[in-house]
Structures are given as C-alpha cells and as structure tokens.
Amino acid sequence: MMRVAAVLAVAVALVAAVIAEETGGDDAPRPHIFMVIVDDFGWAEVGYHRSEEYKQDVQTPTIDALVQEGIELNRHYVHYACTPNPCQPGCGMPQNMTGVAEHLQSAGYATHFVGKWDVGMTTPQHTPKGRGYDTSLNYFGHGNWMWSEAEWQGSYNHRSDLPPCEPPACFKDFWETDKPAAELNGTQYEEAIFRDRVYSILEQHDPSTPLFLTYASKVAHYPLQAPIEYQEKFSFIEEPHRRVYHAMVAFLDDNLANFTSLLKSKGMWNNTLMVLTSDNGGYVKSFLGDCDNNTSHGYACFNGEAGANYPLQGGKYSTLEGGVRVNAFVSGGFVPEERRGTREDEMVHVADWYATFAALAGVDPTDHRAAQHNLPPIDSLNIWPLLSGANVSSPRQTLLIDPHALIWGKWKVLHGNVIEANWGGPQYPNASTADDPIENYSRNCSQGCLYNVHDDPSERTDLAASEPEQLQTMLQMLQLQAQSIWSQPIGQIDPACSTAAMDRYNGFIGPWLDVDGQLL
C-alpha cells in the first residue's frame, strides 16, 4: 500500500531544484551511507530508552554510544508490518518503480545489500541486483531458520519441536547476488554469515569511492535463535522468548561495534552517515507455542510475545505509536559536530531516506520510469536540512499511516477499531504481556480518537471530547488523504515459484518469471 498525496508530490518535485543549495553545491563531499534496518525492534529494547533501574536485561552499549555521538530521531515513523509472501507475483515493490540504490549507483556509488530483502523476487529485476545493488547476500521472505536458512513458514501453533524442513516440504531461502547462496548455506549462525559479508565489503572497499551499504538484520524477527554463548549472557531471564530476543539484540550490537571500528580504522567514518531504524514496533502477540531447547544451539523460539515497546502503546500490526514509532538515529562523522548528541523531535518517515540519500549523492530522486508506466511518484522528502541544522522544522508534517490513522504535526487521529490498545511495563515480564497479551485489547474509535503525540507519545489522553474542532479537522483530512492510497495488486501464490525452486535452484527459492528471457 502506498499513498500519493498531492502536496507531497509537489514538494518532492522541487527537491532536484534545490539539491545543490542543500548539500553545499557540486563540490560538496558525498558521504558513505551505511543504512541499518532492524526487524521487529521494540522501543524498549535499547539502553537509551531504558531508565537505569530497568537496564539489566538490555545490553546495547554500541547502539547507545552511537546515539550519544549522533542524533536520536525521537519521532521516526514506519509502517506497522512487512509485506506478503515472496511467491506472490505482486509481492513487494512494483517492477517499474526505481529503487534508491539505482539512483546512487548512477551517481558513482558502490552499492551492496546484506540481510532481509522482503520486497519481491518475482523476476531478476525484483532482486537486490535488479534494484541497483552491485552485490547482495540475502533471504527473500519474512524470516528463515538461522542455522539452516530454511523457510520459516510462519507460526507453529503449540509446537515445541523444530519442524522438519527439506524440499519439497519447504525450501532454503538464501541468495547471493544472482544465484542461490549454496556454498554459505548452513555454515554458521546466519547473522554471523551476514557479519562476515559486511566486514568483507568494508575491508575491500576503496575509501575514495562513495559507498552505499544496506544491512537489513535478521534481528529480531521470528524464529528467534542466537548462539548459545549469547543466550547464556541472559540466563537470569526466566522466559526463553525474552532471553533469546535479548541475545539476538546483543549479537547485533556487537556486529555494529565491529563495523564501525573498521570504518574508523579505514578512515571512512569521518565521512559516513549511518542511519539505523526498525521496520516496525516490537511484537506483542500471545504465545502460540513453547521454545525448543536444542542442546547444541540453545533455545529456538517459534512465535509469541517478545518485543517490549514501553512506554508506547501497542506494537507490530497496530497503528498506535508502539507499532509505527520506532528506534532510530543517525550517527557518523558526516553528522555536523554541533548536531551530535542531540534529540530531534520533528517528524521523519522511513520513506524520506530515499530523497535524502539522493540529495546527498547529488542526483534527482524523481522516478521517471514509474511515471512512464503510470505509477505514483515517490512519497519522500529530503530531511537533510533538518538533520544538518540548516532548518529547524521538518518538511514531513503529514503522515497517512493507513485509511484509519493520520498524523499531522503534533496531532494524531485514529478511526474505527484500534487493536493492541494497551501498554506493557518498563521491564519484562510485567502486566499485559505473555499472561495477558496486549493483543487481547482493542479500543473503539468509531467516532474518532485524538492524541497529541508530541506531548503524549504514550497516547494515554484522548482529546476528542475536549478538542472537537481539531478532531473534525483531522477526520476530514484523514478521509481526503485516504482517497490518495494506491494499492499494488497482489496475486495468489504462484506454484511456478516452487517449481523453479525444485528444478532450477536445487531447493532454494528465487526468481521464477522472465529468467533468461523465458517464463518458468
């Protein structure tokens, strides 16, 4: 689902005209860009969002230090869930839309992708290579098993065993640029494989060439798995789901320490812009099964309550702040010195990195190919003037979350039935978690609920009764902007996808249409 708001389209069209002014002209240095996307990363799963009293079960020293050296993005918004099955032909980004890596590649950037893709694989053009990445090491779906790269296939209700997973029951989901990653499959813990690949890219990179590196971590999406030595660091946590979740986050934190240290040793950090964001809020669903305790790899957890978003309300799948307002920051030496160690309370959306990265690279972000195929323009705004300190307000003042939720400045309106309408506590376990999951709660906003999410990010005070005129204004804006939503048609799962996995890729999923000029 994408929205096409006329006012934003006009703003985006102006970006190309002011790129030189905003980035310092044609001679301005083009930064290395290191984009880190964390999966299902709860708001309360970082030290900088915890009070000292409740920091015991969070070990994120690297992330906390990067925030202190950079800019905390306190109102960074995303969508509340990920995309459909990769074997659905319409899954992910439409074929004739241009990815941001394509723009940066055209500007002379070396481009690499490592981690979770989850935006399509119908044809080779849908893969990272087809979207502008020189190299990639990725899986295509929502999640996979981290010791075997086998498809996860969703939750397993009330199962305590690891399901057998060999073709044709399920396939491997692991891909290297233009072929299955067969040589790396099953060699070690998946995040360690990703770590080694990112480290190799950085080691081999020529610092004189601008770099665009996207690391979309498997942390901390189901199924939850982590090396046993990391699980043992959190042995004081009784609940296995939470123990493994924190172990995964700690592994990620160590990875980031390795990457940033290497960037510094190569002299690249001073000209690097690092961006970290979660894809959505932490998972707050009820348990659907126990964790399996494998003696060689420790616990593996299939599904259930894991993420903590305190003090925000709700979580993944919800339009409440816990679902759409996420951990995010920028860091690196490219951040102006006077902006380091600050918190930005202006609104930013994850889509805004598209226009921002293009502006920093000195290229026009306009998607001309999409226009030629009657697809909507990008909904992205250049936020570098805000981050650099040139502007004090964000160009992003309006955000349509879905047809039932809209943010405008400090105001947020919700309409209809709102799911996951409850709060967890400051440390797990606590009220409204596993024994009484947040997903059990909903709120009736059929007449509209109104919140000031700047002053009340926890959405505890509904102002609909005290601000009736503001409520009506917001409801009218919501109705108008909802009409601008453009939906990508999603087809049924194509059996030809499995046929290609069996006959062409020896048990790995991958593109199945327009491969070598033929339909499989």
From TrEMBL:
InterPro entries: Alkaline_phosphatase_core_sf (IPR017850), ARSB (IPR047115), Sulfatase_N (IPR000917). GO terms for molecular function: metal ion binding; sulfuric ester hydrolase activity. It comes from Monosiga brevicollis (Choanoflagellate). Residues 1-20 form the signal peptide. Keywords: Calcium, Glycoprotein, Metal-binding, Signal. It comes from the Eukaryota. It holds the Pfam family Sulfatase. Residues 31-363 form the Sulfatase N-terminal domain. Coiled coil: none annotated. SUPFAM superfamilies: Alkaline phosphatase-like. This is Sulfatase N-terminal domain-containing protein.
